[in-house]
Amino acid sequence: VQYPITLYRNPQFWIGLVIIPMFLLGFLIFIGLFFSGLDNLVNNAIGFGLTTMMSMMVVVGILNDSLSKIDTIPCMGLFVLIQIAITSSAVISVLLTEKLLKSIGKIARSKSHDRSLRWRIVRDLTKDGKMFRNILFAVFTILHVANFIWFLSNNEVGY
């Protein structure tokens, strides 16, 4: 007695349910973190971070239920894990950068540094922090896209 069995995978399920939502969610968090107003920046960063982490944990739950249990982490699991690490790093960097800019700005505005050209440049750079936030946005967006490209170019795409 023979029974023919055909197994196949449906990549559209993974693309539509995990890959594209994680990629778009990453961009949304970066835009929200780095281009929100300066009012309550810390509260915004914490709120964005917690909301995004909860959304990403839903995806991790889907992966946990759907992926086969093997000895190594599948490529998609690594993609999601790296995405969570990048997003967490972005939230932490926004929080730390804001504190650092305030401290450096306070030092630069002290009377002993009034006439120094170097401290004048530091004062201008730390005035509103937009330049640092734009640089951080570029860095984390590059990391985000690099993770996505790594996932797509991996020859052993383990769903």
UniProtKB/TrEMBL annotation:
Assigned keywords, A-Z: Membrane, Transmembrane, Transmembrane helix
Keyword Transmembrane part of the UniProt annotation: yes
* One GO biological process term: monoatomic ion transport
**GO cellular component: a single term:** membrane
Q: Does the keyword Repressor apply?
A: no
Which chain regions cross the lipid bilayer?
Answer: 13-38, 45-64, 76-96, 135-153
Kindly give the InterPro entries that the UniProt entry links to this protein. Neuro-gated_channel_TM_sf, Neuro_actylchol_rec
Q: Which SUPFAM superfamilies match?
A: Neurotransmitter-gated ion-channel transmembrane pore
Gene3D superfamilies listed in its UniProt record:
Neurotransmitter-gated ion-channel transmembrane domain (1.20.58.390)
Q: What is this protein called?
A: Uncharacterized protein
Source organism of the structure: Pristionchus fissidentatus
